[in-house]
Backbone:
């Protein structure tokens, strides 16, 4: 393919800051998106097993609703966190993202409805399970399949976007234009690897769950031990499955001995040992975050290499520095993001550790963080609207 086609598809306005920053942010935010995709699919999948046990098993009677709740919250987080890599990818890889969205236009529409139907059915599953209704497992299974399908569609967009050399063939197979928007590409091993990661992720989550609850006297010892050992088994078996799938994927695309690939393999081995020993699952989670970042980096490396070979380097993207925009974005991300998320996490942690009802207004740190978050939110809205309106009037008057 001629690089001039790709270059012509770039935004003529250029990018507002150095491309490498968008690339780093893409890798970071996609890893966050993936973390919650994996946690939601993993906890949901395991809850389906739990719901087949009904009320007969005391451990699962408690664990299943907790897993369903985890999945339910994770889906909302994964949707919010999916927006960030979407924004970054369309800034530096806009030719890829928009061509993929055009070729697979029908699937893009279907994706939105898939998500709406899948998530609504998840709520149905949640309430059916809560009310001990028969058939709740079936509803859950349907919701699960629909959400996995949403992942397959996402995978199609990602894969189609990195096949520029085949775009023309997809757009006009044998010279006849096909503008139906039904283009669909699947790389089974790549997708299988990504989804398989939900098994170790939910395993390590269960180890954390057990460690977190171990300080509470209202959860009995047997339950704590059961969830920890289930977590260990899932983490170990899941990591082995993912390791095989990863090696096959790397072999298929010729990256098996690339230093980044080898670092991921080492990371997986470290994770295996750590989750098998289960000494401190919080530290294991830290290593998991590093491995997730490496995997996200690997996805980016594959795309970067494909595009560079065709003469498209994001580092050559014309930069049209816009300091106020980037300052607003980074300040929002760092100040508002960290304090707001810190506030929510601190509260969630304290609610979970507390027996009985937790009153946040009586807790000094929670109150302080809550007040800061509120003040920053008000200031943010004032700056955002005043600034936006001022620029708008400045431009049109
Ligand atoms: C249940 C819903 C979802 C699932 C299961 C899911 C799953 C996935 C998976 C498996 C990938 C990796 C595909 C690959 O590299 O082969 C991915 C990538 C991605 N997802 Fe999601 N996703 C979901 C919803 C969303 C939503 C709602 C958004 C945006 C608002 C989003 C944004 C993205 C982006 C931007 C990428 C990277 C695309 C690229 O690199 O070209 N996802 N998702």
Residues:
């Amino acid at each position: 393919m001629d690089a001039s086609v790709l270059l012509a598809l770039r935004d003529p306005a250029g990018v507002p800051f150095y491309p490498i920053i968008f690339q780093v942010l893409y890798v970071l935010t996609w890893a966050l998106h993936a973390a919650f995709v994996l946690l939601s699919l993993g906890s949901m999948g395991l809850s389906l097993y739990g719901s087949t046990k009904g009320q007969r098993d005391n451990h699962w009677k408690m664990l299943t609703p907790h897993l369903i709740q985890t999945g339910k919250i994770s889906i909302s987080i994964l949707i919010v966190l999916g927006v960030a890599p979407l924004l970054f990818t369309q800034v530096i890889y806009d030719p890829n993202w928009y061509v993929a969205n055009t070729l697979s236009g029908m699937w893009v529409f279907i994706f939105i409805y898939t998500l709406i139907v899948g998530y609504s059915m998840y709520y149905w599953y949640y309430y059916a399970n809560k009310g001990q209704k028969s058939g709740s497992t079936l509803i859950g299974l349907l919701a699960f399949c629909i959400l996995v399908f949403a992942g397959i569609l996402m995978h199609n967009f990602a894969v189609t976007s990195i096949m520029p050399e085949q775009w023309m063939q997809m757009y006009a197979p044998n010279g006849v234009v096909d503008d139906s928007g039904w283009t669909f590409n699947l790389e089974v091993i790549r997708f299988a690897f990504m989804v398989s990661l939900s098994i170790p992720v939910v395993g390590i989550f269960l180890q954390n769950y057990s460690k977190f609850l171990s300080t509470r006297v209202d959860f009995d010892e047997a339950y704590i031990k059961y969830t920890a050992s289930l977590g260990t088994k899932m983490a170990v078996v899941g990591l082995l499955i993912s390791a095989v799938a990863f090696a096959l994927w790397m072999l298929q695309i010729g990256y098996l001995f690339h230093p980044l690939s080898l670092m991921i393999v080492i990371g997986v081995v470290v994770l295996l040992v750590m989750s098998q020993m289960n000494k401190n699952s919080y530290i294991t989670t830290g290593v998991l975050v590093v491995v997730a970042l490496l995997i996200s980096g690997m996805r980016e490396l594959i795309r970067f290499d494909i595009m560079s070979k065709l003469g498209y380097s994001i580092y050559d993207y014309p930069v049209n520095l816009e300091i106020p925009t980037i300052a607003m974005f980074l300040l929002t991300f760092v100040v508002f993001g960290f304090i707001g998320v810190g506030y929510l996490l601190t509260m969630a942690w304290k609610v979970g550790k507390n027996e009985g009802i937790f009153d946040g207004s009586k807790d000094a740190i929670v109150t302080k963080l809550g007040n800061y978050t509120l003040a920053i939110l008000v200031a943010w809205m004032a700056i955002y609207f005043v600034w936006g309106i001022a620029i708008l009037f400045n431009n049109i008057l």
User: Anything to note?
Assistant: Residues 168 and 174 are 10 Å apart (CA to CA). The pocket of protoporphyrin IX containing FE is lined by residues 30, 33, 37, 78-79, 82-83, 85-86, 89, 115, 147, 150-151, 154-155, 157-159, 161, 190-191, 194, 299 (CB under 6 Å). The chain has 14 helices and no strands. The chain has two domains: 3-321, 322-397.
